[in-house]
Amino acid sequence: MVRVGILGLQGDVLEHYELLKEIEGVEPVIVKDARSLALVDALVIPGGESTTIGRLIEMRGLRDYIIERVRSGMPILGTCAGTILLATRVEDREVGEVRQPLLKVMDIHVLRNAFGRQKDSFEAEVDIESIGRVKGAFIRAPIIKKAWGKAKIIGRIKHPVLGKIGVAAIQDNMLAVVFHPEITGDNKVHLFLIDMAKGRM
Fold first, then answer.
1. What is the bridge-based pairing of β-strands 122-128 and 132-138?
2. What domain count does the chain have?
3. 182 is catalytic
4. Which of 15, 16, 91, 182 is catalytic?
5. pTM of the full predicted structure?
6. Is 58 a residue of the active site?
7. Which residue in 28, 51, 122, 171 has its CB near the most CB atoms, within 10 A?
8. What is the DSSP string of 153-186?
9. What residues make up the domain containing 99?
10. Residue 41 CA: distances (Å) to CA of 49, 139, 189
């Protein structure tokens, strides 16, 4: 049995929980403190308000614990806001460089709110290296502008305004996607995370 934690501080926690519950051999666990984090084999940081989630991570004293577990090899998946929190560098389309709390464990440069407001949300299929074609919901989504070091952009889409843009990246045991696969019910990204936890990737 693989225990997959979902950081349960804010955002699409329930949607990830329900999707993971349907995968055989997986036990989803909502993580709100260091004790529950210590018991999981992998972690999902869901979409939501990245600034709020970052502040709650710090308030709960979880930041160092998450970083320590990631650096010791625990697989982690960031979706939408989760991608922002994993990134080393984050800008916002309107205000430029941000000063929000970040984990800064992944060598990616992310642009927040890249597509505009809620009304500019859309669904698209993304071809992701080693994962396949994934259907995701892009809701006030960021984009991955750049990856360096061990990080690599593994999924792109062609946008009518922004052109060809990065929407998925990987670095060692960290996977980041700027969209919401849990909303469309596509579990391929989660299956990849589970395979990482099993040591298959």
1. antiparallel
2. 1
3. yes
4. 182
5. 0.96
6. no
7. 28
8. EEEEEEETTTEEEEEEEEETTEEEESSBHHHHT-
9. 2-197
10. 25, 28, 16
Dihedral of alpha carbons 92, 95, 96, 100, sign: negative
| Of 126, 180, 175, 127, the residue nearest 147 (C-alpha) | 175
- Candidate list 80, 91, 94, 159, residue with the active-site label: 80
The CATH number assigned to the domain holding 52 equals: 3.40.50.880
Which residue has tokens 């160092």?
64
Listed in sequence order, the residues at least 6 apart from 157 whose beta carbon sits closer than 8 Å to its beta carbon are: 124, 126, 164, 165, 167
From first to last of its 201 residues, the chain has per-residue pLDDT tens of 999 999 999 999 999 999 999 999 999 999 999 999 999 999 999 999 999 999 999 999 999 999 999 999 999 999 999 999 999 999 998 888 888 999 999 999 999 999 877 777 899 999 999 999 999 999 999 999 999 999 999 999 998 888 899 999 999 999 999 999 999 999 999 999 999 999 876
